[in-house]
Design a protein that fits this description.
Helices cover 51% and strands 15% of the residues. By secondary structure, the chain is of the alpha+beta class.
Amino acid sequence: MRPIIIGILLFLAWLILSTWYYTNHIYPVFNPAEETDITEEVETSIQPSPEAQAAILEVPEAITLYFDFDKTDILNPVEFQDFIPAGKAYLEEYPDACIMVTGHTCDIGSQSYNMDLGKRRAEAARDYLVANGLPHDCLEVVSKGESEPAIANTSPENRQRNRRATIQIRP
């Protein structure tokens, strides 16, 4: 029992001494308040030129297109209005980027049929993009079928929201 008590007392002495050493010698060297001042100075000193800032393009936001039940006709082609010019500009600036077109369906129908329908919806969206000037070789088509619903298929309105294709640029 005596060795245990001596061990505990030695540990407490070591703990007190190491805490004192840390707070008086180590912590002042790495004071977080001083670090933020340094990083703020560095961030403000390394700013791109206005020409470089104008050349940096942001990835256009993903868009979602909707379809009627068992159809591949796009219901809201107006969503393409902003995406197509922004997508063209982005792909010209970053030729290694690609556009991912993913087709989705609601839960009505067999799984294999829904996979095929999702692919046809994604292909319809891809064809629309190509017809409006985006290069065919950078467009990837994927079908998720009914596997990734945007919202639970619990009502006709929810099922309508799951009959969609999403288009996003991958840098």
